[in-house]
Each structure stands twice: as structure tokens, then as C-alpha cells.
TrEMBL record:
It is an enzyme of class 2 (transferase). It is found in: Cytoplasm. This is Lipoyl synthase. The keyword Hydrolase does not apply. Binds 2 [4Fe-4S] clusters per subunit. One cluster is coordinated with 3 cysteines and an exchangeable S-adenosyl-L-methionine. InterPro entries: Elp3/MiaA/NifB-like_rSAM (IPR006638), LIAS_N (IPR031691), Lipoyl_synth (IPR003698), rSAM (IPR007197). Keywords: 4Fe-4S, Cytoplasm, Iron, Iron-sulfur, Metal-binding, S-adenosyl-L-methionine, Transferase. [4Fe-4S] cluster 2 binds at residues 68, 72, 75. Residues 54-271 form the Radical SAM core domain.
Amino acid sequence: MATAPDQIRTRKPDWLRVKAPTSVGFAETRKLMRRLNLNTVCEEAACPNIGECWTQKHATVMILGDTCTRACAFCNVKTGMPQPVDPLEPEHVAVAAGELGLQHIVITSVDRDDLADGGARQFVRVIEALRKNAPNTTIEILTPDFRNKADEAVRMIVDARPDVYNHNLETVPRLYPTIRPGARYFHSLRLLERVKQLDPTIFTKSGMMMGLSEERLEVHQVMDDMRSADVDFLTLGQYLQPTPRHAKVVDFVTPDQFKSYGDIARAKGFLLAASSPLTRSSYHAGDDFARLKAAREAKLAKA
């Protein structure tokens, strides 16, 4: 049977090929997540690094359910009417952090436009549960944009003092109407800026997907916009089409091109830049957090 034009998938280059997960550590991590009724962005977003990360018992927990109220063209998380917020979720996240022995944990969520606070209070409850039950675990959060409720939502999360506040710009402004239609570029940029205004000691982080037809100068402009908002850490990785229904990959950015972007980002003043085809927001997040702290200390020592 012939393949319909909209079902043709572009073949991945060799540098994007990863082995299927088969390790004991992978199976144990999956079993733990199921037992605690926790969702992970690793699974829901079909992350290519899941085998490596779960083998090392590193997982990015996705709170507030597995159903998003938006339908971004790049995202594999399902869309619809979400379930009620699970009151046991914060405790379960803390238990998972303890059982996995995590030194650093990344917490993200679906968009919850149906909630009055966008889900911000659940982020706070998770941070509080982790501080109480896993006090040695550093906390990185990756939040949605809290559209129409950002100031209050961001303020309550910053008051809970996560170690890293991440919010991804995802792509260049020109592509927002097709790739991220429910969001607004400058709203997301202002959210990151607001975090720094409220607490300059919290590290801020943002990322972009590459290969969606963005031009090099557009990427440079986004870097400049992030630096104007005092973003500390930039991640750049290759976009991969989850299903034929999602936005197509326009081009595959080479490892050398990613290295060049990383060099430019560091020259523009980011404390840290992770730029490679397989880079994702939470990939090697624990090691990166240690490098981020060291980079800030080195910068302060020079001042």
C-alpha cells in the first residue's frame, strides 16, 4: 500500500539514532513511576534519551496529569479535558526522588488553562514536599506560560524557591502562530524576566527546538532577547516529529552547527549553553546544575 504524502517521515541522520531501552534500570524506573501513579515527560513527549536517562534512574516528572489543554504542533502530549488535580501527587514525587536517590530533580507539567492558577499551587506543593522529604535534592522546574495569570503564578512559585526556573521559548517569534499557537513569544520572555526581578538568585533557563525552518539570525536574536531577560542557561536541541500529524522537520541541524550555536551563546554571556542534536531541557540536568553553580561562582570571583 502506498504511503500518503502527509505520512512520509524524513529519515533521521546517524547522529540522531539511539538504542531501544532494554536495561534493568530502565525497567525499574518505569515500574516505580507506575506504582506511584506518576507521569513523565520522558514517556509522554517520546524523548529520544529515555533509555539513557532511565537506565541511570533519572526521570523528569510531569505533574497535573497527562492531558494538556493546548495542542501545540510539536508536542506529543495528548490534548483534551484534564482530570482533577491529584492531591497525593506532591507526596508521590517526593517518594520517587527518595527511592531513585536523586541529587537533582526536574518537575514539569502539562498546560492547565482550566485551573484558576494554571497549576502553580501544585508546583508549590511539590517543591514543599521535596524540601521536607528529600532536603538534599536540588529542584528544577519547567513551567508552562500561565497565560492570563502569570504574575501571581510566577510569584507564588518563586516564593517557594526552586533552584532553577525553566520556561522554554521553544522557537523563533515568526513560527509561533504555527508551532506554538496558544502562546505568545513576548509573554514567555517577560515571564523569565519576572523570575529574575523577583529573585535574582534563582537560576533561569530556557530552550529552543531546531530544524523548524528558523534562520540563523533569528536564533541569534532569540539569544539576545533571552540575555536581555537575564536568562542564565540556554538549551538547543533538534526537533523530532513525534507522529505524521505533527509539524514536519524542515532540516536536521548538524552537530557542528549546534557547536557553533553553543559557542555563540557563551560569547553572548550565558553562564551555560547545552547545544547538540539530542539536547533536551532536562537532559543531564543534574550535571548541568553543578556546572551552572560553578560558572556563577567563577563570574562573581572575577567581578
